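Form 12-C: Joint structure prediction
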Amino acid sequence: MSRQMGDSHRRFLQTMMANGMVDEQGAKRVYQYCCEIHNTQHAPDKLDDFIETINSKLQPMFMNIRKGMSEESGDQFYALVNMAETHVTRMTSDYADNELELFRKTLDLIVYSEKGNASSTDILNSADTMTTKKLKKSETQQLLNRLVHDNWLNEKRGEYTLSTRCIIEMEPYIRTMYQDQVKVCHICRNIAFQCQICENPTCGIKIHNPCVARYYKGKAEPRCPACEDFWPHEIPEVRRPRSQSRK
Amino acid sequence: MSHRKKPSNAHGSSQSTSNAGPTATQEEEDDATFTQPSTMQVQKGLEKLTPAQVDQKTAEVVQYFLVKDQKKIPIRRADLVKHVVKEYRNIYPEIMKRAARTFDQVFGLKMVEIDPKNHLYILINKLEPVTGASPITNPTNPKLGLLFVILSVIFMKGGVVRESVVWKILKNLGVDIGEKHEEFGDSKKVVIEEFVRQRYLEYVRIPHTEPVEHQFRWGQRAEVEVSKPNILLFMGALHGQEPQSWSQQYQEAHRAPNSSQSGTSSQR
Ligand SMILES: [Zn+2]
Ligand SMILES: [Zn+2]
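Section 2 - Result
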């Protein structure tokens, strides 16, 4: 079934283009707003159908509006992503080749780390092994700031993690490039970086922190959903969804 | 992540400067030698390609436009042909037709040739501008505020303004071009380089001035993208006056083709 796009869809798409990423509440409000402006029917529970119509027309352009979760808060987000074979068309136009190499090295460090993060020291050290034009320490630090500013990385106390937007956008790339390394969350089936891991060596499943919180809420004795072993990690509280959060 | 193979990288850093000089003339030549293929040639070219190949090339052109447009850089036909269209140049008109249709039907944008001589294109929004707050805060570029002020000044002063006038007005608004601005950095550079490159402003030397003086006009992008009635509304709100009280500007705003641009799409 191919539903036609109207101006409400186009305006929604333009908002996504301007913002890159919008949280679920925001997307719902934009959906309602676009329908009201263009006098089209608005069904509050039909946001995903509405987006599907846009996606059916975006797909030939190798673009897509995709949904994903913040690994930190568990909130849902929508991001406009580019699936052209380079995956990062926008990124390749914003960053030089050697800067992209450093980003790739950072991605390596994060994917191979236990907790889904990389310290600035490790990133600075990895800059020494670059094959393209080497970056000085100060340049690397500036680049990291820029990657945070452009919303590819998050930073907390010198530890870098992948932003929600980055994960949504790069998931297909990461899954292909790190096939053996990447694991999905046992609960939500999305790719997992910042998460808890089952300590049973024959199991070792991963669960996102927000998914842990939701899954074990109200359970007296937490057990691994896969192997039934005791779940030894601290169970975080379920966070209330924030509105207007931009990650 | 792209794994673009740039052969130049293999040679280290020594090579990169050697061709810096002739590039500009080279591109002009490229564009001069690019002749629009005839309908017949396009037809023949299409016969040799699969629909999937044509779609793929169209998608690349659309992507290229979107990436450039995000930075408000006009697209040169010469660059487009050289970097994207490449060996499909014999069906260039067909690809542009399809790209334009996609912008129109999917993105609500219109592809406009702002400079037919140099073949420069930009994208403008076809959807009616909406007054009133959007439900989510758009990451509005603070530079756009600066730009809007300058465009307003030029418009209210009849279309052309000496730079010293603009600098004085900006200083009154807290943007001193002699000092580093915390948001814009070198604000003079933003105005006379960035806005000019994006074709929002024209910045030309006033002949026979000593010391050298420049003046500003609206650039081609501003002419098609910025609504003059909106500027008057803005000025009206600022000064607590009716937009009609500037009768000359009011007439100009409501007669210029640009004011009706967004309303021309008849299918709504
Ligand atoms: Zn999960
Ligand atoms: Zn287990």
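Section 3 - Comments
The interface with chain B takes residues 5, 7, 10-11, 13-15, 17-19, 22, 26, 29-30, 32-33, 37, 54, 57-58, 60-62, 82, 84, 86-93, 97, 100, 103-104, 107, 132-133, 170, 173, 177, 244 of chain A (CB under 8 Å). The two ends of chain A are 34 Å apart (CA to CA).
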